[in-house]
Amino acid sequence: MSSVENIALIVVVVAWVVARQFRARQFSGDARRMLILPAVLAFMGLRSHNLLDPHHQATAAALLIIGVVVEVGMGAVWGFTTRVWRDASGVIWAKGTKATAFAWTGMVLIRVALIALGSSLGVATGEGGVLLSLAALLLVRSAVVTWRARDLSPAYRVSAAS
Q1: Going by fewer Cβ within 10 Å, which terminus of the chain is more open, N or C?
Q2: From the CB of residue 129, how many other CB atoms can be counted at a distance below 10 Å?
Q3: CA quadruple 13, 7, 72, 46: dihedral positive or negative?
């Protein structure tokens, strides 16, 4: 894929994911389904021709690693700021909160800061690193929400006094 196509893909994925996060939706917990998008993004990021700047490989690799590690942390924050609950019928639901919006804002600001740092160091940062980071973010967020959902107590239709 060309750089323009990769950037368009990043914008579409982020817009789609953010839009979904702020609507209450049933949580399926299907591990295969949760792995598809991160796997596709990671594959595309790894095969990107501009993953590392060939003139500054060590610095580019350091920025890539920092970016992925930060996104892993932000994925955990995002997962913990997502409201997860079980309704009276036992169905698990998830929905982003105001804190989730702040987490997304923080992720964007950190990504912009890393790109600016790379630029100030003369390192060309490609979209391959962003794709890898986005894959890590989505994977960790899904793992955290799944873990939280599995810890929910089942809803019983019996009063506690019975």
Answers
A1: C
A2: 27
A3: positive
Question: CB–CB of 42/132 below 8 Å?
Answer: yes
What residues have CB less than 8 Å from 34, skipping those under 6 apart? 139, 142, 146
Is 80 exceeded by the pLDDT of residue 5?
A: no
Q: ∠ CA(1), CA(105), CA(20), 5° rounding?
A: 65
Q: What strand order describes the sheet that includes 25-26?
A: 25-26, 92-95, 83-86
- Classified as helix, coil or strand, 157 is coil
pTM, entire model: 0.82
SS3 84: strand
Per-residue pLDDT of 112-133, as tens digits, reads 898 899 889 998 877 888 889 9
